Amino acid sequence: MTTERIHRWTKTRLREHLSVVKGERPPTLVLKDATYLNHARRKWIEANIWIADDQIVYVGKEMPELLGDAEVVDCKNQYIVPGYIEHHAHPFQLYNPHSLAKYASERGTTTLINDNLVYFLNLEKKKALSLIEKLEELPTTMYWWTRYDSQSELLKDEMFSNSKIKAWLEHHLVVQGGELTSWPKVLQGDDTILHWMQETTRLRKPIEGHLPGASEKTLSQMALLGVTCDHEAITGEEVVRRLDLGYTVSLRHSSIRPDLPRLFEELRELGVDYFGRCLMTTDGSPPSFYEEGVMNQCIQIALDAGLDPVDAYGMVTYYVARYYNVDHKLGMIAPGRIAHLNFLSDKNNPTPISVLAKGQWVMRDGQPVEKEAPFNWKDYGIEPIKIDWELKEEELHFSMPMGIEMTNAVILKPYQTMLETAASELSTDHDESFFAMIDKKGKWLVTTTLKGFSTSVMGLASSYNYTGDIILIGKSLRSMVQAFNELKKQGGGLVLVENDEVIDQIQLPLLGMMSDASMEEIMEQERSFVNKLRARGYTHEDPIYSLQFFSSTHLPYIRVTQRGIYDVRKKRILFPAIMR
Prior knowledge:
By secondary structure, this protein is α/β, with parallel strands linked by helices. The strands form four sheets. Strands 1, 2, 3, 4, 5, 14, 15, 16 and 17 form a nine-stranded mixed sheet that branches. Strands 18, 19, 20, 21, 22, 23, 24, 25 and 29 form a nine-stranded mixed sheet that branches. α10 crosses α11 (260-269).
């Protein structure tokens, strides 16, 4: 990777941009009489802003000597802020990185810092890194993190090789390590992950923790090992505990943890008045959570809580860029920065009326500037999942005395089932169902019972999880097998069957986890599917998260993994997967 590529602008391009400031060449765009937020001075300042291609080249009192064909925009009665940054995106929550970027940028979130887990697990290294480079050609800026672990118990963990992690860590679009879900292993002596953490720190890249409920002592130990930020504080006291220990704290507002209004209230009560080490995130929520936009929602909550607008905007712009050591390129309106700009009608209304991303209009006077850009996912090995094996009803045996119980959308506990599980159909007057996880290649399966998911889902099939293995849930074995067969036909996704009919489905042709539809379309599909699940007795916060996290071992207390039913605390398999 050349130095020029890493720095975004070639020497030739920089010379061209210099000539604009010298008056030898016209800019491409001039924002005249702009009132903009200057983070260096923490003030709103009036200036003319010149843009050449995708770079801000001048901010000051003068107008260009040479205007040529430059577009001149009168910015009186508007307020301009830097483009917003979502620094903790999981770009595979039914949507894909391309559809999320388009939708987010039209609502002012012009930079995404993305989780790489799905691409790391499912694509070979060269294709995955080519993919992130291709996505950087969009108007949205996309940076990435690299994971250190799979967040589950895989049959084969060799994909986390030293050379693969190293290639990701050293890539110029990768700006952090983490999120570190396997921190207990590190504390207990896992030197491989500690080595990767040290490499991350050596490269001057931060490390994102995943430390729910962590004590002062645990937080201190993780800080010693290099963790610099955490997004798991769920009370004001937990935020302060992290701030006191020198962490940057990411305040979360997501579909299963919509904590932000309460956090701001508690922080005010605790006397917190400095927010320069606080960021905000929506933590990769499902599509419908973003109906009102992405980071603009968080800014609005901060403003409504009485924060200084400089801080409210700073927590999703300058403070983020400074934390990730990219404030020379992002997060400020100043020469040398990428031209990500949001035009507001009012300082207290963070939803922009117009948006520039890399100097291109993506939203203009409330209307999206349509630029259809089909993306060839197959070039990167991202295709429908291929299921070339059969599943018969009689293969699904449920004789295990221990089942799994959902205590909320994502927490699973063991429980003793009293069901007569030899039956092929269960009653709808209780909330216990059959549950199976089957290898996407058909080589193994895990069968048990699931309490607390629903009372009357007859057959649900899902490939929506990090590894693309198949989950079946239902009251009826027949309906579960029918749902599986439909899933097989469509190459991945979510399928709901009742009375021998498919009553709803979401097609996820990209690795069985992501749709190739627009955000607006996938929102409608998600709403429809979730409504049907709720009508059939699902009562928790978010069924999309529930389906995704059945195998995620960063959550207590038990999980269903490729190796079998796994006790997270004791780190052992309780019941192994059965080979088919």
